[in-house]
């Protein structure tokens, strides 16, 4: 296990901020948003929120200026994958940013490397073997450079279009837990797993009128998730509201989950995108200083 101190807060938890979105951020801010504006927005997030985070996740395409403007005690995690995937090719296969390597990202100041891969544990063995080999290669590269490797897993089902649907919610625990079980294996050299919570909380009793799980059943899934991995794992927010993410973290702790922190993006800063788009830089900065700081501090209280 590599040294993760640069990513931990004073309590030993990872309280990291994610702003490595590229295509998703452009969709939030408007498809005609220029690259310079994406970079400026990331800088605003970094300048105003990293004093309250143990680390920040950025991307090499638009994030280096934001990295330079982060709080001095804040660790730097850099994304290594290209954003999105080829929708014409089955399997949501990953690819790397063409002009980057682990060596070059580390040389420029990255303290850790993040790789996002979409995983369906029930997809064809041929597709999953490609992903396993891909992750092994990146893990070996990080091992050779002696830099922490964060693997982000987003689960899906090749036969279910909407991952927010009731249909996917019924299979999500098996998808999330199965993927964690596989990629915790030593051959991948993963140091931290960045994963979804094992259930869709919008279908849990007490969180919704359309529940498919009791709170007791949901708690069992959180406990099982903790039991399948012997490496640190942290939760991503998956674009849910700040309130739902905070309540989810509370539920996870009460359920006995041994999660090691969070790497949270949109649940912290998403409201600032509209301010930036409609009113400009100063309005976005005001929102981040007030609502953004409040969001991140409330989330940090629950890890």
From TrEMBL:
SMART domains: DeoC. One of its GO terms (biological process) is D-tagatose 6-phosphate catabolic process. Keywords: Lactose metabolism, Lyase. Pathway: Carbohydrate metabolism; D-tagatose 6-phosphate degradation; D-glyceraldehyde 3-phosphate and glycerone phosphate from D-tagatose 6-phosphate: step 2/2. Signal peptide: none annotated. InterPro entries: Aldolase_TIM, DeoC/FbaB/LacD_aldolase, LacD_aldolase, Tag_1.6-dipho_adolase. The keyword Lyase applies. GO terms for molecular function: 6-deoxy-6-sulfofructose-1-phosphate aldolase activity; tagatose-6-phosphate kinase activity; tagatose-bisphosphate aldolase activity. It catalyses: D-tagatofuranose 1,6-bisphosphate = D-glyceraldehyde 3-phosphate + dihydroxyacetone phosphate. It comes from the Bacteria. Its EC number is 4.1.2.40. Belongs to the aldolase LacD family. NCBIfam families: PRK12858.1. This is Tagatose 1,6-diphosphate aldolase.
């Amino acid at each position: 296990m590599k040294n993760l101190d640069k990513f931990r807060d004073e309590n030993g938890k990872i309280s990291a901020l994610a702003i490595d979105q590229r295509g998703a951020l452009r969709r939030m801010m408007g498809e005609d948003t220029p690259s310079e504006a994406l970079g400026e927005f990331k800088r605003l997030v970094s300048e105003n929120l990293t004093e309250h985070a143990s680390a920040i996740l950025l991307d090499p395409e638009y994030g280096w200026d934001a990295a330079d403007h982060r709080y001095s005690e804040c660790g730097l995690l850099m994304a290594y994958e290209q954003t999105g995937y080829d929708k014409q090719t089955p399997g949501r296969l990953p690819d790397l940013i063409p002009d980057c390597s682990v060596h070059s990202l580390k040389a420029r100041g990255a303290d850790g490397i993040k790789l996002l891969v979409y995983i369906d544990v029930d997809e064809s063995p041929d597709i999953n073997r490609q992903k396993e080999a891909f992750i092994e290669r990146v893990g070996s590269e990080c091992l050779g450079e002696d830099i922490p490797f964060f693997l982000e897993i987003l689960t899906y089902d090749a036969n279910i279009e909407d991952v927010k649907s009731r249909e996917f919610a019924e299979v999500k625990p098996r998808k999330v837990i199965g993927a964690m079980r596989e990629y915790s294996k030593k051959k991948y050299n993963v140091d931290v797993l960045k994963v979804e919570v094992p259930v869709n909380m919008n279908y849990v009793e007490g969180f919704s009128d359309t529940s498919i799980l009791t709170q007791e059943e949901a708690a069992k899934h959180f406990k099982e998730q903790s039991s399948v991995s012997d490496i640190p794992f942290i939760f991503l927010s998956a674009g849910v509201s700040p309130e739902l993410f905070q309540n989810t973290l509370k539920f996870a702790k009460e359920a006995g989950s041994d999660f090691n922190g969070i790497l949270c993006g949109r649940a912290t800063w998403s409201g600032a995108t509209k301010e930036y788009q409609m009113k400009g830089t100063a309005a976005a900065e005001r929102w981040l200083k007030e609502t953004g700081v409040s969001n991140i501090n409330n989330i940090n209280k629950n890890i």
